[in-house]
Amino acid sequence: MAPILSFETQAGESIHHGNVTLVPFARVWRILLPFQFPGFNSGFGLAWSKPVSVLAVMEDGQEQVIPVRDVTRQAQVGLLGACIGMMMFMLVIAGLRSKRTH
After folding, report:
1. Dihedral, CA atoms, 12, 13, 16, 19, nearest 10 degrees?
2. Which of 8, 57, 73, 88 sits at 20 to 30 Å (Cα–Cα) from 80?
């Protein structure tokens, strides 16, 4: 039986450009649910993939791994942190105000 949750890094199709071959790599996360729907032969699941790096191979055999930075994800995490910080600050201020009035 296949695992319910799996993580793996997969290589994509290589691309040749000039004297360089580029190979993209993506991290794939899969959730496979063990139940089946009537009329379907396989189970139900979800998959999410995200690019993580590109391997550049030169004609002379030199290799370089170029990481792919997810700037959007970094901004989202930063905004989430700022919102949580602001919420905690507002709760502290509200708590201090309620103590002052009693």
Report:
1. 50
2. 8
Query: How far is 52 from 66, CA to CA, in rounded Å?
Result: 9
pLDDT for res 41? 64
Could you report the per-residue pLDDT of 1-56, keeping only the tens digit for each?
567 888 899 999 999 999 999 999 999 998 887 766 666 666 678 888 899 999 99
Residues pairing with 28 in the sheet: 8, 49
Q: How many CB atoms lie within 10 A of CB 77?
A: 11
Q: Which segments of 1-102 are extended strands (E)?
A: 5-11, 15-17, 20-33, 44-58, 63-67
Nearest-Å Rg of the Cα atoms of the chain is 24
Residue % of the chain over a pLDDT of 90: 59
3-state secondary structure of 41: coil
In terms of C-beta density within 10 A (0-12 exposed, 13-18 middle, 19 or more buried), how is residue 54 classed?
middle
